[in-house]
Amino acid sequence: MFNSITGRLSEKRADTICIETGGVEWELAVPARSVDDFGRIGDEARVFSWLHHYEDGMRLYGFAAESDRALFRELMKVEGIGPKQALRILSGIRTEALGAALDSGDLAALQKIPGVGPKLAQKMMLALKGKLVGATEPGSKGGSGQGGEWADVVRALVDMGFDRKSAEKAVATAGKKAAAAPSAEREREVFRAALLDLSAGA
């Protein structure tokens, strides 16, 4: 029914934003980690949306990127995960770090997410491992790139528990090596090369 809502960002709370458009103010539940990705109060923002219709009402969920919404939908395919739980998971870990944890079989990383215990981590691994390629790549948010060309890559690595300075160094090295790669694949290569470098030095 709704694909996205574009309008003036009128309010930001811990896990909610409000968008004013055409005289209507929309309230959307968003991942807590992404609240600042929508900009500052008064800025124009585009929010990718998903409408949850349940017995007693309706609730709009919002995402800064289509990839975040796609991951939200994938999470709800896991037994025991509904919209609220999926949002809590995305509030507890960046999409890039979640994808890396799933692809590497890192159950310990999944269990660090608030609300995710051993059983749910296992279910997530069985249902989603290897199925999120392209949905959780660094830089998929389409943001302004504040903090440098590889800011999203560094942030993803920091969210995985690596030291920021070490992550920045590894990313800078990987960025030079990936200069010849096709532009569409460059960030993915930088992320993977930096992750291998950091893991080897751990």
Q: What does this protein look like?
A:
Helix content is 44%, strand content 19%. It is built from 8 helices and 5 strands. Helix 6 (151-159) crosses helix 7 and helix 7 (164-177) packs across helix 8 (183-201). The protein has a 5-stranded antiparallel β-sheet, covered by helices on one side. It is of the alpha+beta class. It has 3 domains: 4-63, OB fold (Dihydrolipoamide Acetyltransferase, E2P), CATH 2.40.50; 66-128, 5' to 3' exonuclease, C-terminal subdomain (DNA polymerase, domain 1, Orthogonal Bundle), CATH 1.10.150.20; 151-201, no CATH class.
Morphology call: globular
CATH superfamily of the largest domain: 5' to 3' exonuclease, C-terminal subdomain
**N-to-C series of helices and strands:** EEEEEHHHHHHHH
User: Which structural category do the helix and sheet elements fall into?
Assistant: alpha+beta
Give a nutshell description of this structure:
The chain is of the alpha+beta class.
What labels describe this entry?
alpha+beta; DNA polymerase, domain 1; single chain; 3 domains; 19% strand; 8 helices; 202 residues; 44% helix; OB fold (Dihydrolipoamide Acetyltransferase, E2P)
